[in-house]
Design goal:
The chain is an alpha+beta fold. The protein folds into two domains: about 1-170, no CATH class; about 180-270, no CATH class. The protein has eight helices and nine strands. It has helices at about 1-10, 55-65, 85-95, 170-175, 190-210, 215-230, 235-250, 255-270, and strands spanning about 15-20, 70-75, 80-85, 105-110, 115-120, 125-130, 135, 140-145, 155-160. α5 runs parallel beside α7. The radius of gyration is 22 Å and the shape is elongated. The N and C termini lie far apart (about 65 Å). The relative contact order is 0.11. The structure holds zinc ion (ZN). InterPro entries: DNA_primase/pol_bifunc_N (IPR015330). It comes from Actinoplanes aureus. This is Bifunctional DNA primase/polymerase.
Length: about 280
């Protein structure tokens, strides 16, 4: 029963909101019915997401009014969610993470996709991180089991939440963060090589200063970001490896760990090269 589930999510600190429900023919419970373009996927509350609550009395009241409401969960508070809606999205994510997808809570969505739960990143929603892969973060929400999809299928757990959520792996986090401002379309790069060298300095500096407990993550992320420059032909792989190794030694990491982390981060980064449009005239 969806009230029981809604109360359980709220007990874990996840703000809950009642969402419309599709009927057996796939029509939405909203006034638009069969003409609704998001059947069973939009909030029942007038103010939508902003009214999401962890208060058990409020939730009980909502479900008293709408016993069959789908269960919406606000993201960005307790968890962020990788929203995969196609086989292409799933393969893209596995490829990005070199087949090492963290084993946190996984939902099979009613539409046949997957939701992978992670600790909040602090970032908002991102649409089209990869083909078939969106990110639901601050200001977003997802449907959760036992919600119903317009196809008639239920949202179900492939793997239930247990203690703790995995952090987003560095290559995924770097995609969510997006390219550095100077590499975005609205900031044409006039000196890509100079920019890449500045990024190399900044990343090496960050690794060298990383506090204990964050060193490996920082190194992994730096290797990924710089790998994207290498993939774009803006930095030389050997130089990146050499600079990052020196920085990581300075931070106090061991040789074997340094080597493995740099290799995996750079490999993932090179698969996602920054796109840059060199200018003929500076
Ligand atoms: Zn509707």
């Amino acid at each position: 029963m969806s009230l029981t589930a809604a109360l359980a999510y709220a007990r874990h600190g996840i703000p809950v909101l009642p969402v419309h429900t599709p009927d057996q023919g796939g029509a939405c419970s909203c006034l638009r019915g069969a003409r609704c373009d998001r059947p069973g996927k939009h909030p029942r509350l007038r103010h939508g997401l902003s009214e999401a609550s962890t208060d058990p009395r409020q939730i009980t009241l909502w479900w008293f009014h709408w016993p069959r409401a789908n269960v919406g969960l606000r993201t960005g508070v307790v968890m962020d969610v990788a929203d995969i809606d196609s086989a292409e999205g799933w393969h893209g994510l596995r490829h990005l993470l070199a087949d090492d997808v963290p084993a946190g809570p996984w939902v099979r969505t009613g539409g046949g996709g997957r939701h992978l739960w992670f600790r909040p990143t602090g970032f908002g929603n991102r649409v089209g991180l990869l083909p078939g892969l969106d990110w639901r973060g601050a200001g977003g929400y997802v449907l959760a089991p036992p919600s119903k999809h317009a196809t008639g299928a239920d949202y179900t757990w492939l793997r239930r939440p247990s203690a703790g959520l995995p952090v987003s792996p560095a290559p995924l986090l770097a995609l969510i963060e997006g390219p550095p401002p100077a590499l975005r379309d609205d900031h044409p790069i006039t000196h890509p090589d100079r920019y890449a060298e500045a990024a190399l300095d900044a990343e090496a500096d960050r690794v060298a200063r990383a506090p204990v407990g964050t060193r490996n993550d920082t190194l992994n992320r730096a290797a990924f970001v710089l790998g994207r420059f290498v993939g774009a032909g803006l930095l030389d792989a050997a130089t990146v490896r050499w600079e990052l190794t020196a920085a990581a030694r300075h931070a106090g990491l061991g040789t074997a760990e340094i080597k493995g982390t740099i290799r995996s981060g750079m490999t993932a980064g090179r698969r996602q090269p920054f796109e840059h449009r060199p200018r003929s005239a500076a």
